Amino acid sequence: MASLSEEVLLVVKKVRQKKQDGTLYLMAERIAWGPEGKDRFTVSHLYADIRCQKISPDGKAKVQLQLVLHTGENITFHFANESTAVKDRDAAKELLQQLLPKFKKKANKELEEKNRMLQEDPVLFQLYKDLVVSQVISAEEFWANRLGGVNNTDQALYNNNKQEVGISGAFLADIRPQTDGCNGLRYNLTADIIESIFRTYPAVKQKYCENVPHNLTEKEFWTRFFQSHYFHRDRLNTGTQDIFSECAKQDEKGLKSMVIQGVKNPLLNLLALDDNTLDEGYGVCSPQPSTSVANRTVKESSNSAIIKRFNHHSAMVLAAGSRKGETLNDQGSETSSTDGNSRDSDCFHPPVKKAKLQEATEYDDLQGENRPKTVPLNLKKSDRYAHGPVPLQSHQYTTSQDIINSVNYIHHEMSNYKPNLTQVMSSTAASSAIAALSPGGILMQGGAPQAIHQMIPTDIQGELKHLYVAAGELLRHYWSCFPVNTPFLEEKLTGHLEEMLQAAYNKFHAWQTRRMMRKT
Amino acid sequence: MASDTDVSLLVIVVDVNPIWWGQQAHREPEFTLAKCLDAVMVLGNSHLAMTRSNKLAVIASHCQDSYFLYPTKKSADNGGDESSSGDGKYELLSATNNQMAEEIREILSKTEVRGNSTDTLLAASLAKALCYIHRVSKELEVGQEMKSRILVIKAAEDCALQYMNFMNGIFAAQKQNILIDACVLASDSGLLQQACDITGGLYLKLPQKVALAQYLLWVFLADSEQRSQLVLPPTAHVDYRAACFCHRNLIEIGYVCSVCLSIFCTFSPICTTCETAFKIQLRQMVKPKKKKLKQQM
């Protein structure tokens, strides 16, 4: 209880609680009070459990601080130090004011999560009502398995439900300056565009944080941004007094590091791509080395500058999208995260790489066939198949005389056959057939097996379903105790679970008798 | 609701075993083969009269062969060359009846006496019915759907030798969603009970043979969709127990060879049908045998 390994933020002596003198300790995660002279804390509450704090009004003689917990309990601390009571109390109050909001979110989050789960899933809600409200299982056990998922996976799922919005690649172009009438330009900046600029160019964000609001106003900052050559198409790194010239240098550095890193995908060879056309010499002449700076024309160099800027811009947009809103506290990681290669390098760890290579080089259709080996069928007594698994039936034999007689009779009868459809049967025969086929007749005695769901009213069905689901939940708890490794599980099995099962059985029995009584 | 052009095909397989019917004539003179055929015609006419797009086929199942009573090759050739009946009946119905009568007369007049085959070739007729259904389904127009069912009117007893073929036919019908209904006149047939159960059709053993037409119209005229709206005789429990190959006794728990799937009631280290040796050690072999015996007892 008195774990002094916790960080103690504030100690207030001479605080009375329940008419006892003692010391109040405010730690990193909880508030605790121990009586004078003793080493233990008798009162200890996590900040997460505290709903709010109250202080006694200033005019009162007693200087008090009251904590209201989520459970409704109130705990009052009386600051009894004559000289510094008010100061102590205020210091404690301010510290609590700072700490409580931090922990409040966590507690609320859990409750919120629970509420959300109960609201979204009606089956879960019904289960909760059946088991926890009627006190078959404690609420803790109910949420034990379910919230474990909340903290790890569901949280991630919940976050993933709201997708991150990416950055449009054309956000700079969307700004679209309008002429102001008299030789000025008007740039419309929305919050979205500003956010895009900050996410894509962290250097600009850093400049913004540095300069605004200390040196420049926001408007001035953006005016300078648009005026600077950094923004414009033709960048002339002339080393002016621009705050953005540093950004330009950093961009160059980033681009160079990207190029040096290269592409990690072994199946892709960027250097083999070339922009050659067979215009002169039809492939016979060797291509001019166009990358050497000396041979460049002015036009080529400005084109290459623009292309470089486009490439850099695209890389920054992609990198910003994959960074997923990290705070850019570390400047050092800026350049390393500007390449889109980082994900690729993850993809090429040895087993994945092997699988990819195999996929690219092997064709399934051309492999040899691997059919499982079968045993050939070799029947010795195949006549058994003729009659199959049918029991022996007493065969009625007809004498050959019978056969001859029958056939002759049929010959005779059917040689003059004419259908007489007006006298197929007599009305008595028909009405007796109808009687046999009507409900209650001879043929209908089987009792058409009525589907059970038609015989039982829906409310009873519903209640039975709830009981069934609740029983399933209890069984889940039971089976989760196996294999019995710890004495805790053993104790849970023999003591606790038996009680639960007994309570559930009693509940079911009560329901059954209630239903039977209603019927009779 | 089915559209107007959906085809519903009814194939009636009538058992015309002359030996059984000849004996029947002595047993019960008021219900003869002629009466039976009349009742079948009534059902066929009713089926054709229900909807214009309904189709009918009738197969007579004899002990030597199975014949189509309707439609026959002659009808396809002649077209509408029949003499119309004078009573103003719907021409299709009168043509159908005349064809059927003519065919059956011809078939039965050609029957010869043969001693070795006295069983009705029901499996063969079933196969013919399935093939006919398949052929008609290929001749449908684009967009037409066809629902078919087979009604078997059985007179004579089951023939055990047709078991394999019969079961193959049943499973083929099941795969094609073809219902097999059965109307049994005399003795219960386990094969037909299984057929009806597997394909979802109705099995009926008539308490009264003279009222055959009434039973046919009441129970077997409606097709599968309409049957759910009617109150019809309930399906009886089907005995699916198999008989062991060694003693032909019905058993509930047995041993099955994994190679040839023959069923035995007791364990033996070699299957007698396919001579596969089972590699189970002797001790283990004894234990399950004892257990099984205890269970059966």
UniProtKB/TrEMBL annotation, chain A:
One of its GO terms (cellular component) is transcription factor TFIIH core complex. Residues 322-350 are annotated as: Disordered. Keywords: DNA damage, DNA repair, Nucleus, Repeat, Transcription, Transcription regulation. The keyword Transcription applies. Residues 328-340 have a biased composition (Polar residues). CDD domains: PH_TFIIH (cd13229). Gene3D superfamilies: 6.10.140.1200, Pleckstrin-homology domain (PH domain)/Phosphotyrosine-binding domain (PTB). SUPFAM superfamilies: BSD domain-like (SSF140383), PH domain-like (SSF50729). Residues 99-147, 181-233 form the BSD domain. Signal peptide: none annotated. It comes from the Eukaryota. Belongs to the TFB1 family. Component of the general transcription and DNA repair factor IIH (TFIIH) core complex, which is involved in general and transcription-coupled nucleotide excision repair (NER) of damaged DNA and, when complexed to CAK, in RNA transcription by RNA polymerase II. In NER, TFIIH acts by opening DNA around the lesion to allow the excision of the damaged oligonucleotide and its replacement by a new DNA fragment. In transcription, TFIIH has an essential role in transcription initiation. This is General transcription factor IIH subunit 1. It comes from Cynoglossus semilaevis.
